[in-house]
Amino acid sequence: MKQYTLFGEAEDTENKYSAKIKAPIYEPKNQKPNLLLLCDDSKTKSLIREIDESSVPEDEKKFLRLAAQRHSVFHYEHIADYYANSSAEVQKLMEDSALVIVDFHSAIENGFVKLCEDIKEQFLHEYPNE
Fold it and tell me: From the first residue on, what is the mean pLDDT of each consecutive set of 10 residues in the chain (130 residues)?
């Protein structure tokens, strides 16, 4: 069965996977969490150990170590708490790394958020001075 989205594209409603993305919004608490709570890199470390112990050539190891970073899991609720209770310098670096998105315009400018042409046109229509 097909449906039409906001942008007029046909979508298969029998597909169990959704293309909808809803950005989470976290309400920070007044407590700065321990850095160890911000990320789980146990899978990454395990993969890197395996790569280092392998007989793979060093140039391939370098690539595989970089790829292993994809397995680090970030806990954004804790990251939001950490951000809210950090210095301005740390906050800027976290924003530059897209760990938090505070300013939507800046996120677009830095390429962290991309708008399709239809949304861009609507945005410019509603906010012509932006």
Answer: 48 57 70 94 97 98 96 92 93 87 56 58 74
Q: Which two tokens stand for residue 45?
A: 């470390």
pLDDT at 56: 97
Strand partners, 3: 11
Q: Rg for the chain (alpha carbons), in Å?
A: 20
Contact 47, 98 (CB under 8 A): no
- Cα 107 to chain center, whole Å? 11
Q: CA of 42: how far to CAs of 12, 36, 71, 72, 111, in Å?
A: 37, 11, 9, 7, 29
What pLDDT shows up at residue 2? 46
101, 112 contact by CB (below 8 A): yes
| DSSP string for residues in 51-65 | HHHS---HHHHHHHH
